[in-house]
Amino acid sequence: DEMDVDLIWQDGEFVDWEDAQVHVLTHGLHYGTGVFEGVRCYDTENGPAIFRWEEHLERFYQSGKPYDIEIPFDRKELTEATEELIRRQDLESCYIRPVAFYGYDMLGLNPEECPVEVAIAVWPWGAYLGEEALEEGVDVAVSSWRKYASSQIPTNSKTTGAYVNSVLGSLEAKGNGYTEAIFLNKEGNVAEGPGENIFLVRDGEIYTPGLAESILEGITRDSVITVAEDLGYTVHDGATISRSELYTADELFFTGTAAEVTPIRSVDDNEIGAGTKGPVTDEIQERFFDVINRRTDDYEDWFRYV
Ligand code: PMP
């Protein structure tokens, strides 16, 4: 297939890519009652290394809680399945996508009779917003769509159906010629990107919204906060950031498993800082890439070697 991989793990079995199918009356297909994860595995001197696997697994199980999705495989089983997918397909680095969802029983909204189906796919995936974006930064626009509030849909759960919000924001941004969107929350404060958390730099200090702003508290976000603090920066975790502060920020950047650390060079056509990757972003990004490519022994417990 086009992704250069031919195996998917589905409900306990390794199946051929084209045989990994579901019924059209799958509950999760109709109502979005599923949860997923996105994880990266990096190419290192000691072989492929999965970044913060335990934290991603923990979030996967936690994501299911509001929906009573009990994933019928334990951590060891999901770990072995993932590692075997990577080994059997000789991947040096890849993106890992576990998903769990209510399958077919009947289509009442209450899913309690539906089986929980689980699958894991892995595939090679480069820079999410492009290699150039990592160097030059991206042009983003504040979305006319708001981020849903955590009083409406849990935002600390990676719920499949909830990603229609992200899709709307992405389509709008791309349609208007921007690379990515920024969502404000229901209160009108800065929340996050469709698949990224956001950081702001002002006067040498770093600010990022927290869970109270209806965001997903990303694992890259957590890693970047740790790395930035270890570099000596003050990080205001849980900051309230207004839309207008975006325009006057010294620097802005996104973080995420897919986006890694991506500078933002403009918001709504307003140049941020010098309109390119800023010095604080550069230092943090460089350190982050040193960490994930294991050019340092620091943060060794963030890695699981396959
Ligand atoms: N916010 C949203 C809405 C996301 O989908 C993601 C990607 N999982 C993130 C933030 C970043 O989270 P992480 O660093 O854990 O990938």
TrEMBL record:
Listed pathway(s): Amino-acid biosynthesis; L-valine biosynthesis; L-valine from pyruvate: step 4/4; Amino-acid biosynthesis; L-isoleucine biosynthesis; L-isoleucine from 2-oxobutanoate: step 4/4; Amino-acid biosynthesis; L-leucine biosynthesis; L-leucine from 3-methyl-2-oxobutanoate: step 4/4
Gene Ontology molecular function: any one: branched-chain-amino-acid transaminase activity
Keyword NAD: no
EC numbers, comma separated: 2.6.1.42
Reaction(s) the record says it catalyses: L-leucine + 2-oxoglutarate = 4-methyl-2-oxopentanoate + L-glutamate; L-isoleucine + 2-oxoglutarate = (S)-3-methyl-2-oxopentanoate + L-glutamate; L-valine + 2-oxoglutarate = 3-methyl-2-oxobutanoate + L-glutamate
UniProt-listed Pfam families: Aminotran_4 (PF01063)
Record keyword Transferase present: yes
Listed InterPro entries: Aminotrans_IV (IPR001544), Aminotransferase-like (IPR036038), B_amino_transI (IPR005785), BCAT-like_C (IPR043132), BCAT-like_N (IPR043131), BCAT_family (IPR033939), Class-IV_PLP-Dep_Aminotrnsfr (IPR050571)
Organism domain of life: Archaea
Co-factor requirement: pyridoxal 5'-phosphate
GO biological process, one term: amino acid biosynthetic process
Stored NCBIfam families: ilvE_I (TIGR01122), PRK06606.1 (NF005146)
Family affiliation: Belongs to the class-IV pyridoxal-phosphate-dependent aminotransferase family.
Function recorded in the entry: Acts on leucine, isoleucine and valine.
Protein name: Branched-chain-amino-acid aminotransferase
Provenance organism: Halorientalis brevis
Phylogenetic placement of the source organism: Archaea, Methanobacteriati, Methanobacteriota, Stenosarchaea group, Halobacteria
Gene: ilvE
